[in-house]
Design a protein that fits this description.
2 domains, Rossmann fold, elongated, 12 strands, 396 residues, alpha/beta, 16 helices, 40% helix
């Protein structure tokens, strides 16, 4: 499966990389000097973008002068090149000019184009503006606060990136059955709206019960952070009945919890009851955990199968967590040009039949320009030399 990608930032490159890590030939087209996200932070001391290298693993890179008619014509030819498994195009740029579906499909009638937009009208949106519109910052943070709380995880971009991959696969399956190409549009805002509705946030508001802030407490069940005697902070969750019983057994707090249930008239076997009694439950657990060092809490929780974790920062995760190392078969160490040796993940899907492909590095900008133009368009070395002399192509 060959996908041509012209995109930037998170969702579109992530969708392309997801397919590349499952074995698709994903060819990213950039303009000379790199696209909008080529120097996106975080960067190394010599200005290599870890953002760009992180979201473009296992792809091939083609650089064209997209400001020139000749460069745009070459890009259109790559998008519409022949092949039963080709003719798939992914972009999050406005679908006009050389990105216009009608122009491209005139060259290949079974073309599949997925255009990612900010909103369904073609307007601009990013995760941070979308969160503000969806009300998420007003549900996040300390109880009683009236200030918005933004966060660093671009959740809508990440979900949308996966939907990009699903959308292309679904459209390709439709084409394989019918021979029909199509223009698929996907809006970041629609993804956010859909998920907010799926999780009940919108319905809550329609019923006059908009979600309130609850600080670090898990809404609708028992879950929050606690501090051990030696200062180590842990997260403990009792969402399911099994998880709640494990907490009760590990802390030998059954009699205290029964007393809480009787005093408040609540059934703590139900997650909603545990949420209503969360402060009383937390008082019991806080006392038990605060009286013990982390090692003892860890031993008790693990012995009883409690759903819990230790808080650690990203430095600890990268330095000492075995799950974030080659001990986890998803990861491998590879040499990334411009960065050096890095720990890189492949796709999280573990295909038990066909196996999981190892992660590949992100390409050097324009690394594959000459070979891709030769493979797909039959441009020989002499022709390529002329294009290079004219500044129409770039690469190493």
């Amino acid at each position: 499966m060959r996908v041509v990608e012209a995109g930037a930032f998170v969702a579109a490159p992530l969708g392309g990389m997801t397919l590349a890590q499952m074995g698709a030939d994903v060819i990213r087209i950039d303009t000379v000097g790199g696209g909008l996200d080529y120097r996106r932070w975080p960067v190394t001391s010599d200005n290599t973008s870890l953002f760009w290298t992180g979201l473009n693993k296992s792809k091939r890179s083609v650089v064209l002068d997209l400001t020139s008619p000749e460069g745009r014509e070459i890009a259109m030819a790559l998008i519409t090149a022949t092949g039963d498994d080709a003719g798939l195009f992914l972009t999050n740029f406005p679908p006009r000019g050389w990105l216009d579906y009608d122009k491209l499909s005139a060259q290949r009638t079974d073309l599949i184009q997925l255009t990612l937009q900010g909103d369904r009208h073609g307007g601009s949106a990013v995760d941070y503006t979308l969160n503000a519109q969806l009300g998420v910052p007003g549900m996040t943070g300390a109880e009683g606060s009236d200030s918005p709380v933004n966060h660093v995880l671009p959740a809508w971009d990440l979900i949308t990136g996966q939907m990009v991959a699903v959308g292309l696969l679904a459209a390709e399956r439709h084409r394989s059955r019918t021979g029909q190409g199509q223009h698929v549009k996907l809006a970041l805002k629609d993804v956010g709206l859909a998920v907010m509705a799926h999780l009940g946030f919108i319905t809550e508001a329609q019923l006059g019960q908009p979600r309130q802030r609850h600080g670090n407490e898990l809404f609708g069940a028992m879950g929050r952070d606690f501090v051990c005697a030696d200062g180590v902070r842990v997260m403990v969750v009792g969402l399911t009945g099994k998880q709640w019983r494990a907490i009760t057994d590990a802390t030998a707090s059954g009699a205290q919890f029964d007393a809480i249930a009787a005093r408040l008239g609540l059934d703590l076997s139900q997650e909603g009851g545990r949420f209503l009694a969360r402060r009383e439950i937390a008082a019991v657990l806080s006392e038990w955990i605060a009286a013990r060092k982390f090692a003892d809490v860890c031993a008790a929780f693990d012995a009883h199968g409690v759903c819990w974790s230790r808080y650690q920062d990203i430095g600890e995760l990268a330095a000492s967590d075995l799950e974030c190392s080659p001990a986890n078969p998803m990861f491998a160490r590879l040499e990334q040009t411009g960065v050096g040796p890095v720990l890189a993940p492949g796709i999280p899907l573990d295909f038990q039949g066909s196996g999981r492909l190892p992660p590949g590095p992100a390409p050097v900008l324009g690394e594959h320009t000459e070979v891709v133009l030769a493979e797909l368009l039959g441009i020989d070395a002499a022709h390529y030399g002329r294009l290079r002399d004219q500044g129409l192509v770039g690469g190493v």
